[in-house]
Amino acid sequence: MIPRLLESLPVESIYLDFISELQVRGFEGEVSARFADRTVFSTDNSIYQRLPNLVVFPKTVDDVVRITSSSADPRFSALALTPRGGGTGTNGQALSDGIVVDISRNMNRILEINVAERWVRVEAGVVKDQLNAALKPHGLFFAPELSTSNRATIGGMISTDASGQGSCLYGKTRNHVLELSTVLLDGTLWHSRALRPTELEILKCRTDRVGAIHRVIDAIYRNKKDLIASIFPKLNRCLTGYDLAHIRDENGLFNLNNILCGSEGTLGMVVEAKLNVLPIPRCSALVNIRYKTFDNALRDAPNLMALSASSIETIDSKVLGLARQDVIWLGVKDFFPEDEVPAMGINLVEFLADSVEELNVILNRVEAYFQDDTRSTGRCGFTMAKDNASVERIWGMRKKAVGLLGNTKGEKRPIPFVEDTVVPPEHLADYIAEFRALLDSHKVDYGMFGHVDAGVLHVRPFIDMKDLQQEKLIRLISEEVVVLTKKYKGLLWGEHGKGIRSEFSPDFFGPLYACLQEIKAVFDPENRLNPGKIVAPDDARLLRIDSVPTRGQLDRVVPPHVRAAFTEALHCNGNGACFNYNQDDAMCPSWKATRDRRHSPKGRASLLREWLRQLAMHGVDPLAETARLRKESVIAKLPIRLTNSVTKRFGRYDFSNEVFEAMDGCLACKSCAGQCPVKVDVPEFRAKFLELYYSRYLRSPKDYLIASLESMLPAVSKISTLYNALIGSRVGRKVLRVFNLVETPVLTGIDLQTELRRRGFSNAISSDLNQLSPLEKSKSVIVVQDAFTSYFETRLVLDLFELLRELGFTPFLAPYAENGKPLHVNGFLKRFQRVAARTADKLVQLEKSGINLVGIDPSMTLAYRAEYVKVLGENAGPSVQLVQEWLADHVADLRRVPATRSPDFFLLPHCSEKTNVPSAITDWQKVFEALGLR
Fold first, then answer.
1. Mean of per-residue pLDDT scores for the chain
2. Would you identify the CATH topology of the domain 288-407?
3. Residue 608 CB contacts under 8 Å (≥ 6 apart), including other chains
4. pTM for this structure?
């Protein structure tokens, strides 16, 4: 039996005292010691998991000052502070067992845009794509380009000195930072910028921490510049973090920002930034080259660099194969035609110009080069994407590479731990050949993609971190890659920062590591800012890659058969695609509305993983428990449900309630199931959770009402006038509010079958379908009813029948049957299974007539191919198409109808169909175009 209460790991009392101190000092933001928040913030996009004691959400710069100045109190001298942005780091940079300071929730305003001087001033929580959307009307953008640009914050980019696609042209983040506002550990808010010599000398005379910082760093430059020049490699990516090579910037000015960029919150908390922005290139094109082998693609890169491209990106066959199975392939497939020998690698070569004429000149030169060039025998062919929409779609596929790899089958998952090495581009092919041999020697599969123009390749080995023996490969492979990378005069960290991989810093910095320690000591003498990352004082250790808890270690507690039943949650890799800032993007509405990471697919998956772990720790098998409870009567469950509900009301803690709170905010729109690269399916695991949760807690009456809706509607519709009057009255609305129903649709009062007969569709209801000829069947279709359109939107069903008749088809009406979607959404899985089996049997019988089935409501229709498959098996359910899917298959048979209005239409697609059916929109476009409409 499930234990009555599941625990929270306790917060140390000193952290609770810190909360009180913040409140006394007027802290305006939010502070959370809730186990759910701490759990959600214990992971990022890395393999690691560290549970913080506290999560703090400052509202203003003054709040960040309050946090650091409060921590300066001797009582709190042991507390560590770690700033956090979008949480997309691959190396645990923002993970801490102390206090996580989330800058992203509240501090996300664009403060100023100066178009004339081409700069912007932003708070650190602003997302890169958010900034570029605001700049676009002015013809400007902020470089460089990141694959995580729709959720990566500017503060996070600065903290890791992020680069990405196009870095050879645009440089790294630090190349675009003009000024920074950083809160130091003692509470000082410091505004840094490039300094003239006289300004620097004045600052060095100060007696405070600011003066000491400038003295120390300037002394390092003066005393070690020759050593710095000899150790820092001449690479596009350099040595991220504490960038000694750029203490003096390109103009010879002292620039503290170049030390702060890439420092990962170990020196201070960046709260605001002034950034230079660039004109958006007016014209762009992508040349998409296919190769016989991935090695051919790498070895061709130096030849392509001579073409003066703005960027060159590469993708291996593993990523390419996964892209072909994803929704994104629909928009790019024409640019990657099938060759006689399947392409095993591609290079994407981008060219920019100020006019179409200039771009065409460049592309003509490139095309001539390919026709004349004989140096590369590995090319299969190439295509050119010249319009912006096509270019953006192809870059979208490249951006999705990490997520695509995460959607592989099985327990071995592609994980980041040696994924951003960088070597001189001319050595990349030889280096990768040895890298691949190294991985092959460990019998490890992998995927590769990256920036060949910069010598950076992202390599993700496939490892099951829940397997103790495979976990040991992290250490073995990391150390071998360090040796290999040094052999080719490269770096272990090309662009994703150091984080928990900082243990290798001394190997690469050599004698300069002592200089890093000096800088750390003057900024953070007590080693309390994100300790263990990048550099550690002499008496402290850097974190080690195998000494920090991993997600795999915690997931290992959950029995394999339970993990297999909840793969839609446990395979979440922290990619963070669900944190997309864009309000117009379907993914994920509850996250966008709340800005609370618990109410996101990643947050909900994290909480469910912890819930399963706690059940396992108590010796509870949720699958066996579900099977037992399904046999138990409602009366037998009532005592424990009453008891737990009463104790919950009186504040008794149960972690299950925190999980429920997150699940309860899910709209079950299934955008996550379609848009998450790893296919995290919150509605699916939410339903399983709710079934167990409500075996221990009382349900809301609303749940029973909604669960019974489909079965009640045929009877209620017969008294529709009375029903509508009741729910529309003041008393009725008050009663519905008791059920937490605040917007209830009215019944149309139209009897569908009677009205169809009146309109001349008598055969649609009672015909013997088996009597139809093959030709008649090919021109027929069966409309599958659903409760919502048949009773609340009856005219829509009638319109569909009229339309199908006008187009030359014969529609038939399937007898009304429950779909069961409301049951599934609310966790009535036992009843859903019964309904699904019964309805599937009826629809399969109709299907045997040889006539296609279509459904109107997308959410209900898609249940037949998603939820039904889960409970009935792959081939047991009926095949029910969306209306546009069926019409698109029959465009050749459409009878032309005269347009009665403007030929232009706008489509507002249903969230579930837009995100789960790749062709949902293009099918409608195909049908409309066939009718001369747009």
1. 92
2. Alpha-Beta Plaits (3.30.70)
3. 566, 569, 659, 685, 689
4. 0.93
